Amino acid sequence: MKIHTKISFWGLVVAVWMTVLPACQTDFTNPNAPTDAQVLSSRDGLLNLAVGVRVLYATSGVRFMVENNAVTAREAAITTTFINMIELEDGGDALTDFNTNVEGLWASMLRVMGACEDIVAAVDEVELLASTRNNLRAYANIFRAMAIGALAQNYAEVVIQTNRQNEASFVSRGEAYAEAIRLLEAALADLQGDPSPEVAAILQGNLNLQDIANAYLARFRLFNGNYEGAIQAAAQVSPQRTSVFTYDQLNQNPIWARVIQNNVPNFRPIDHFGLPEGLRPEANDGRRAFYLAPSEDININGFPIEGLRGFFENDNSPIPVYLPGEMALITG
Amino acid sequence: MRKVYLYAPPKGGLLFSFLLLVCCFMGTLQAQNAVTISGKVSDARTGEELIGATISIQGTSIGAVTDLDGRYALSTTLGQESFTLVVRAIGYSSQNQVVTLGNQSAFTFDFELTTDVMNLDEVIITGASAATSRRQLGNAVSTVSSRDLAETGGIAVDQALQGKIAGALVQQNSGDPAGGISVRLRGTSTITGSSDPLYIIDGVLVNNNSNELVDIGGAAQNRLVDINPADIERIEVLKGAAAAAIYGSRASNGVVQIYTKRGKVGKPRFSFSTAVRVNELRKQIPFNEVPFDWVNPGDRNNLETFPVERFNLQDEIFRRAGGTENNLSVSGGSDKTTYFASVSYLNNGGIVKNTNFERIGARLNVDQTVSDWLKFSFGLNYTRSESQDMPNGGINAVDGAITGFLFSNNRVNPRPNASGVFPVTSLLVPRTNPAEAVARFDYGQRTNRVITNFTLNANPSEKWNITYILGLDYYNQSAFGFIPVGNTSSNALGWATRGDANVTQFNNDLNISYETMLTPAIRSTTIAGGTWQQDNFERIGITSDRLAPTVRTAVGGTIISAIDVRSDVSYYGAFVQQTFGIKEKLFVTGALRYDGASVFGPEEKIQSYGKGSVSYNLSEENFFKETFGSRISNFKLRASYGQAGNLTAIGAFDRFLNYNPLAIGGLSAVVPSTLLGNDALAPEIMNEFEYGIDASFFGDRLGFEFTVFNQQITDLLLQREVATSTGFATRFENVGKMENRGIELLVRANVMRNRDFNWDVTTTFTTNRNEVTQVVGDRIILPGSFGTSAVIEGQPIGVFFQGFYDRDDAGNIRLDANGLPRRGVNPDGTNVRVIGDPNPDWFGSVINDFSYKNFTFRVQFDAVWGFDVFNWNRRLLDNAIFGGGENAGRELLGEIPKGTGGVQAGIFEEFVEDGSFVKLRELAIGYNYRPKSGAIQNVRFNLVGRNLISFDSYSGWDPEVNTPGQSNGVRGFDFGAVPIPRTIQLGVNLSF
């Protein structure tokens, strides 16, 4: 009998091993997110990434562009005790390099640039309609230029090309604008031919790439002292159309989320846009009623503050990519 | 007579060849005539019969266990002329008896055992597969018995371990009724991952996640809370890498092996215990009681005030809460089948209103003997844990009761008006009126969990022992949160969330041991084993705000976030361990393990871990016995080296560059993760040296265990910041180094003993110096610490790195013309520096156990000394713009300049306080009554107190808590954390 039971012990062990072994996997595919290899090697991946770039720019990018400038320029005043906001309002030595806002603007623009560079490099490796290839390249170059320009507007020296080996080099503000201008000019050239139905589908009629390229070209040429070129580009922007970033409940208008959401503002506009006496818009200037909701509140540091309206009243309020009025100012 | 066995021809495959080889060894057995041995085992001091003592034949796996009357009987057909019987019982010194076979076939031996203060003869199972006595081990192993776990007032296993183990810092992070607990064995051993040990219950690798499915401000339960301490027979704690090496890639934080109660041969034996408890806040903190307030709190120059009435908002939050605990178990069995079954119910009220924890559990352990060489056992544990939670703290979410208290100006009467609307008490920023939070918020979670083990154990011959374990741990944890429409919180329009996690852990282990006498003096034990493990984690959740009135579910409003995350990880490995025991004096062990895990890069998947240890029982040498024998009864030197790994730092797919999917306006989109992929990731490796002395004196009445350890942890996985010019923010790399160096001391003394009175003292003392010896880049600021807790080279993990006071050369704080302090500036122009360290210099405990006749009395003091706590509460309370704190009142009274608290808020150093404490952790009084006749065998009454008194200088409620819960690196962080309550429990146990 012993022989029987002995075999049955191993029989049991083997039986259990056999039930278990088919489940023995040593490699798993990530069901939650695709990898770079999957995204950059397919048409769908590239188009999805193009939409992602826009969302990134329009949410965290726009948040920091507006918030950092508004608070440091005293257009807005903080209404929380979070240290990043306190430092931002204190300014000077108190504002550290590792402040969330200082880092956030820098990092989100470089993320946009990195992803755009990936798209530009990948369009030639994936089978695409010629128009899609050109339009996608133009789209990526426009966002890349916008990101470079945003960096140049906020930092003295910037990076214009990401590098995963950590060998990126810094260039001056002027050189950065020059690169942004070059990219926008290239994009306009790429947009010459037939429009791509696939790229048009991801624009959803909210963004006009020619207008955006020309508007930013006008802005950056202006900053770089090429006034003639600036006027020329601004004139190309149709005053009849607007280009807007759209939002929804899961990709919220970032300024709404920071100021209006739940009535827990992180900052609010200072009375008269924070402008000193003499520079303030007139009392009946339409911008006052458009952007500001009157309030008697005073912030922690004693600034008189107002409520915010403008393009930020709801979680899905669209934010314009540029203000047509800016073009009018450039063209004079 | 020699038996001949026939086997089926091999069907191919290595496994079968191996099995055949094993079976061939079995074939060499010889049969002999049976010998029976029987007798009785009792306590040498009291004469009481010892139940559950084991009697075994040395060098074999033949043995028996004493029954309820202390009797045993065993039979053997061993073909030796003589052999040694070894008698062991938990808490007693072992005894040997040489048996010489003549023609006699029946022997009777009675044994009287003396208590073993140092547990030198205790049988250790963990880390060895085959049971080994502590004497043989080259590393320190701590054990805790069911007796130590009873009458602690703790509701969870880890909580009950507080202060019981040298080298283990057990911290309760929250005073919630199922408040999370962190266990650090010899310090923190990772930066990014978890430093909590690996928990194994009856061979099942159990999950101890601290899932934060709904943000309740930072605190979270750890899932060990699902285990009922009353079901536990004993716990073995392996603190070092040497002991843990054979557990491989998951073991560098140490291993806690839990063994649950098992049935014993005999008629059914019932045990019933019931207890009622009271939890209460130990103390209230002072608050602003000044009957006037600033007209303009933000303006330092405006000293105008107006009269107000002040309220004590703590009364709105805290309460005295009750609880009950009932356990019923039955055990028994026949020669072939034994069983242990239990049901339990726990209800633990929280000291914060509207909080509660309930646990219902059932367990069944069955052991079946199939034949004289084959056994199997089956264990099943079902638990349902349910809690009512209240958000407090505010690492991310800021809605909560204590959180609201911190921001509130207590001049506002917090009670609702006649229509039930609560007033806004936080006048500056929208934070919840604490009275409204406890009255209207509805948060909770529910866990349904099943832990199953199936174990096969074979002793095909006296020399072979084969164990196969299949373990399965599954739970569903479901949490929800609800803030009704129209309230004072930051979610005024209502908010609802629901989050579920499904967690499965599966392990499959085969261990084979072979023990033989190579020569009469050298015993060899070889163990080889293999494992296959797979973990599956699935999480789903939705959150919405702008709720429709009366709706409480998360689809009743605008969905603002939704997640669905799944991951699988597999682990596989094999090890071999060899021990040589030379004349039962010197034991040398070496082991090697290969381990693989799916999370690592292709080149790094397989890792090897080694260990080596030596244990030398000097007191067994004749010269020693002759010289010191009368005073020093045991003296053992030990040394060990081991390696173990940790892979908790990275998730299943963190080595890839992943693109996060999202959708907008009907379009699919992907966004590159900020985490750059790295295909070369490997586990963190701990190398540890440990040296120690175990000694006992005066007939084992005084003993100590002393260990020096040095852990060097390399290849630490850091989510290293990469230059943002890469287009990414971070990347995991094996770049950090860390060390833990310290000592552990355990002293046990039997101060006094006679027939009626016994007094034992147990003291533990541990020091540990943790140092991060390498991080790439200047420093890492730990997430979830408000930019305050940092990892800095040359410093312990998690030091507070923030603004400091401007001081004169004598170290006094410099005041400006207005009498206000200023923030200091370093010579290099920066204005931050290390201002505190949350890691204790030392910790320890003193436990006094008295028994007099039928009375027992135990008192345990725990001390944790030399650590800092960042008191974020005071940073808000003291600030005049919020105005609820005591110092805000002192500003009103003019005792300190107006604005002091506001300036201090920007200096930070002010709020770093010494957290050192001594707590009266446990006080237990028990009375045993044995009715002379009747069904009831024993009645025990007990009165237990837990966390009764704290001696500390901390200005907050409790220096022991940690708002970010079981966070690895962010410690000593008090921001609206619930203090640990004082608990008093009255219970009765019946055995029948």
Automatic annotation (TrEMBL), chain B:
Residues 1-31 form the signal peptide. Pfam families: CarbopepD_reg_2, Plug. One of its GO terms (biological process) is siderophore transmembrane transport. The keyword Signal applies. Keywords: Cell outer membrane, Membrane, Receptor, Signal, Transmembrane, Transmembrane beta strand, Transport. It is a multi-pass membrane protein. This is TonB-dependent receptor. The lineage of its organism: Bacteria, Pseudomonadati, Bacteroidota, Cytophagia, Cytophagales.
